[in-house]
Amino acid sequence: MPHPTFTIVYLAGLVTGCGIRAVYARRRKNARDRRFTITEGVLLGLAGVGLQIVPLVYVCGPWLDFADYGLPVPLAVAAGSVGTILFAAALWLLWRAHVDLGRNWSALVEIQAEHTLVTGGVYRRIRHPMYAAHWLWAIAQALLLQNWIAGGSFIVSFLPLYLLRVPREERAMLDHFGDAYRQYTAHTGRMWPRRRGRE
Fold it and tell me: How far is residue 141 from each of residues 71, 101, 181, 187, measured CA to CA in Å?
């Protein structure tokens, strides 16, 4: 089982992250151009399992304890401490991205009615801060829950969704905003700021 302190950190982060999403999900507008597929739905579900279900099974009972990996105490504490910092950064970035995106946000690949191209706030430097936040979350989960299955479940389950969604989202933005989005992509990175003409 994880250290009680890191369990509390993980659970607090999970509740906070789900709370951020719940608040902004209520503010959505009607979609004008929805590009949802069954594959996307399946991958969203799998990512949710890796993000919530598997870790909660681990935290709430002994069923996955066989996959714990033993670290020396100083190393375990260091890993958990780094995980705590990354989780805090992930939650801040997730919240800030929602604030900056406002009512343009959707959990699905879709263009909202009256959709605007957001290029300010965290979007001034990166195009997909929410995905960056989820990658930070996935790494933090692996460091906080020192278990091969529960710790790594979000990394494994999120990767296929990320690989599917990012190109589809960028295609939708290009279709809707055209040259304005091309110009925006020329000076921004996908998940970290572009430097010297590269992502």
Answer: 16, 25, 33, 31
Q: Say which CATH class 4-186 falls into.
A: mainly alpha
> What are the angstrom distances between the C-alpha of 8 and each of 12, 80, 100, 146, 152?
6, 11, 29, 14, 18
In 3D, which of 74, 55, 66 has the Cα closest to residue 141?
55
Per-10-residue mean pLDDT, the chain, length 199: 80 95 72 72 93 94 91 91 97 96 82 84 95 97 95 96 93 92 93 68
Structure tokens at 10: 């993980």
Question: Per-domain residue ranges for the chain?
Answer: 4-186
Residue 47, SS3? helix
What is the reported pTM?
Answer: 0.90
H or E element that contains 172? helix 148-177
